[in-house]
Structure to design on (247 residues):
């Protein structure tokens, strides 16, 4: 079984408005995912350096960041970063600028996990519905042009409060949209803003929101996770068909 997770870390600023990157890393250790997509990892102003020091990531976790060609001192692309557990090979990485009124982007990484290959997309969509739809279309168009076609997991903060939102409908045409649960705001979750979008060759085993005393305060979003199986993965041999279905 492979576990993927998505976490909007709000530049490592907790609900007490203190910047505490080590709390974010401790939450990641609690989730124990193999691949993590982070949003809002870099500071928004000034030099836009990473709120998670790479040295701290190396020392406090078993992850290493996918190289996205970020600016000096940064970790992500428009705030999106991908972390992979030690032993997972990064075959390629691509950055995609999304249409938006404000800077938005997506990070794409092709991974080798044992004998299997998996494509990961980390994304943070905009605040306006029209632009979210355009951003979904841009991501899907980019994926259609990538060769070879691979089992794909898209994940991130979609900023979509409406379960019938049209950006979700765009993703759902050829993919499965997974709502792990309500993840925002972390102290009293009301909105299921953080989601997964799976290609049809990825089986969903389980999904949920990671709720702990630490995650309630580390960011204004709770992290979400999904346990998956896909062609060539060890879990796929045990669970060749989806075991659970989420709306």
């Amino acid at each position: 079984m492979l576990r993927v997770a998505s976490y909007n870390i709000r530049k490592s600023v907790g609900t007490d408005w203190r910047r505490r990157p080590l709390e974010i890393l401790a939450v990641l250790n609690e989730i124990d995912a193999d691949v993590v997509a982070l949003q809002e990892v870099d500071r928004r102003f000034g030099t836009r350096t990473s709120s998670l020091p790479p040295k701290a990531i190396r020392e406090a976790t078993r992850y290493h960041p996918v190289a996205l060609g970020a600016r000096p001192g940064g970790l992500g692309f428009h705030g999106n970063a991908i972390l992979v557990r030690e032993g997972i090979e990064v075959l390629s990485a691509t950055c995609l600028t999304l249409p938006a009124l404000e800077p938005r982007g997506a990070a794409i990484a092709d991974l080798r996990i044992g004998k299997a290959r998996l494509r990961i997309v980390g994304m943070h969509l905009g605040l306006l519905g029209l632009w979210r739809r355009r951003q979904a279309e841009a991501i899907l168009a980019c994926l259609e042009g990538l060769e070879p076609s691979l089992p794909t997991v898209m994940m991130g903060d979609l900023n979509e409060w409406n379960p019938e939102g049209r950006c979700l409908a765009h993703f759902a045409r050829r993919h499965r949209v997974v709502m792990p649960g309500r993840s925002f705001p972390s102290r009293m979750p009301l909105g299921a803003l953080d989601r997964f979008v799976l290609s049809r060759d990825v089986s969903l085993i389980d999904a949920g929101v990671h709720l702990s005393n630490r995650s309630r305060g580390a960011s204004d979003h709770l992290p979400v996770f999904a346990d998956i199986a896909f062609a060539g993965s060890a879990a796929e041999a045990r669970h060749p068909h989806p075991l659970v279905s989420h709306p």
In short: Residues 12 and 88 are 25 Å apart (CA to CA). The longest strand covers residues 89-97.
